[in-house]
Design a protein that fits this description.
The protein is an alpha/beta fold. The N terminus is likely disordered. It has an eight-stranded parallel beta sheet. It has a five-stranded antiparallel beta sheet with strand order 14-15-16-20-18, covered by helices on one side. The structure holds alpha-D-glucopyranose (GLC).
Length: 554
């Protein structure tokens, strides 16, 4: 079904005329994975007081908002994306009072807080699901999930051919209260994550109430987990097998990106708009096309969506230019900001992804990629540790791994622990200031050679990646042509390079990127503001080293 833009669309000039610049349109949002950020009680697991104590660090870094991955009560079958109680903080992370204190302190510092909302599924330890199991087939609580009888003579086969994102069938058979093998329930992720049935009004009511609970606590927005998954095609039709959908996959399937999800987001938008202070929602929506993603951002739906096409693009000038153009076109059509992201808790860190086996090259490219990203119009997402140039940890022993995808697949594929290793803050040996003691546990081991990557080691060193991020974010804040607006103008540049211009009323700006391995000579467009590597600006032309980006004021 083709969908059309609905609602009143504000134009760029009407927004400017009203003097209203919505904060989220060009915000830099920093993702904290709470388990791995800072551990205030020395149990080896990061927590809310740990994050609270590090808020000044985030303020100094220069971000606008902090997105916290889930910290709710959870058995942690999927790093907290299996929520047992949406209104409680898991004791491993702290208490509701800690959450309240964290939000209050962040606001005092001028930082906004976005929390994760997981509406596609809950934990098998959620009260509703436990009660559904107890009540048996046909019970009202089973109606809030997708319970079905199995196929085959004794119901021994799953109800359809859907596969879990983490591998294996997307259905698990339960044992009924009388001890017999019974119905199957749907879980697009791990068996410990039963999918809600969004055709049931109680599910809608519950999530509206959960939204209000956190909005009343003062959060500035929500990151909506698996936003494309809530509504399943009527009758749960077979996919017609030809492989499994991988994390962030874009195949059209009957369990993702169904048009019915948009009604949910229209009702949520009305709630967000009831609250003062521009509360927002950002969709994690894996859709077949960027145009389908834009549908989630129509003026009466959500505010932003992650740009996974950008994250997935290679280090290639043509490919990146194409993704940038397509993204801007699709998002501009619904007057939504485009977002940019290079890393998150589900993917291999970009310094390793771009390295092609050479860590030094990876870091050079990662820094250049950051300057490119932060020069594009819209909002940018940073993942904790990228500002330290952290690489993916690729040699974690199997016995410490916790990603459910690891256990349900054949190993490396889909493994997400390597980007979740705790942050090194200070000192010479693990846990590098992550905990409270000099030597102490960390839930995943850090490489012993990370002492040069700590915040302490990089602070004040102009050549460090940390100081590079701080400079980039400070310039972005001060320079009006960065971030804001909706357009870029591509400039002629040699093959394998990119050059574009951003204009604003109070100044213009050029970003040049050399994506090749060898240096190229480009016209000097203006005054050098910041470079991702050593660059000596010349009067007429400037030599740009390989894998390097430069910001120029013009
Ligand atoms: C999202 C999260 C991922 C989680 C999955 C299931 O993709 O980012 O970490 O495993 O949803 O909730």
């Amino acid at each position: 079904m083709t969908q059309h833009v609905t609602g009143t669309v504000p134009t760029e000039s009407s927004l400017a005329a009203s003097g209203h610049r919505e904060w989220w349109r060009d915000a830099v949002i920093y993702q904290v994975y709470p388990r791995s950020f800072a551990d205030s009680d020395g149990d080896g697991i990061g927590d809310l007081p740990g994050i609270r104590a590090r808020l000044p660090y985030l303020k100094k870094l220069g971000v606008d908002a902090v997105w916290l991955s889930p910290f709710y009560a959870s058995p942690q079958a999927d790093g907290g994306y299996d929520v047992a109680d949406y209104r409680a903080v898991d004791p491993m992370f702290g208490t509701l009072t800690d959450a309240d204190d964290l939000i209050r302190d962040a606001h005092t510092l001028g930082l906004r807080i976005i929390v994760d909302l997981v509406p596609n599924h809950c934990s098998d330890q959620h009260e509703w699901f436990k009660q559904a199991l107890r009540e048996g087939p046909g019970s009202p609580l089973r109606g809030r999930f997708h319970f079905r009888p199995g196929k085959g003579a004794d119901g021994e086969l799953p109800p359809n051919d859907w596969e879990s994102i983490f591998g294996g069938p997307a259905w698990t058979r339960v044992t009924e209260p009388d001890g017999t093998p019974g119905e199957w329930y749907l879980h697009l992720f791990a068996p410990e994550q039963p999918d809600f049935n969004w055709d049931h009004p109680a599910v809608h009511d519950e999530f509206r109430s959960i939204l209000r609970f956190w909005l009343d606590m003062g959060v500035d927005g929500f990151r909506v987990d698996v936003a494309h998954g809530l509504v399943k095609a009527a009758g749960l039709p077979d996919v017609g097998h030809d492989g499994q959908v991988k994390l962030l996959g874009t195949r059209a399937v009957p369990y993702f990106d169904q048009d019915g999800v948009h009604d949910v987001y229209r009702s949520w938008r009305r709630i967000l708009d009831e609250y003062p202070g521009e509360r927002i929602a950002v969709a994690e929506a894996w859709t077949p096309t960027v145009e389908r993603s834009a549908l989630y951002l129509r003026p009466d739906e959500l505010h932003q969506a992650f740009n996974f096409d950008y994250l997935g693009a290679g280090w290639n000038a043509t490919e990146l230019r194409d993704v940038v153009d397509r993204s801007l076109r699709a998002m501009n059509a619904v007057h939504a900001p485009t977002t940019w992201v290079l890393s998150n808790h589900d993917v291999v860190r970009h310094s390793t992804r771009l390295a092609e086996g050479d860590p030094a090259r990876g870091l050079r490219r990662a820094r250049a990629a950051t300057l490119l990203m932060l020069a594009l119009p819209g909002s940018a997402y940073l993942y904790q540790g990228e500002e330290l140039g952290l690489p993916e940890v690729v040699d974690l022993p199997d016995e410490v791994r916790q990603d459910p995808a690891f256990f349900r697949s054949t190993g490396q594929d889909g493994t997400r622990d390597g980007c979740r290793v705790p942050i090194p803050w200070s000192g010479q040996a693990p846990p590098f200031g992550f905990g409270i003691a000099e030597s102490g546990p960390s839930w995943l081991p850090q490489p012993t050679d990370w002492s040069h990557l700590t915040v302490q080691a990089q602070e004040g060193d102009a050549a460090s990646t940390l100081e590079f991020y701080r400079s980039a974010l400070a310039i972005r804040r001060e320079h009006p042509a960065l971030g804001a607006g909706r357009r870029i103008t591509w400039l002629d540049s040699p093959d394998g390079t990119l050059a574009f211009r951003r204009d604003s009323e109070s100044g213009s700006f050029v970003c040049t990127v050399n994506l090749t391995r060898t240096s190229v000579t480009l016209a000097t467009p203006g005054t050098l503001l910041l470079a991702s590597a050593d660059v000596e600006p010349g009067t007429g032309t400037t030599e740009l080293p390989g894998d390097c980006a430069v910001w120029w004021s013009v």
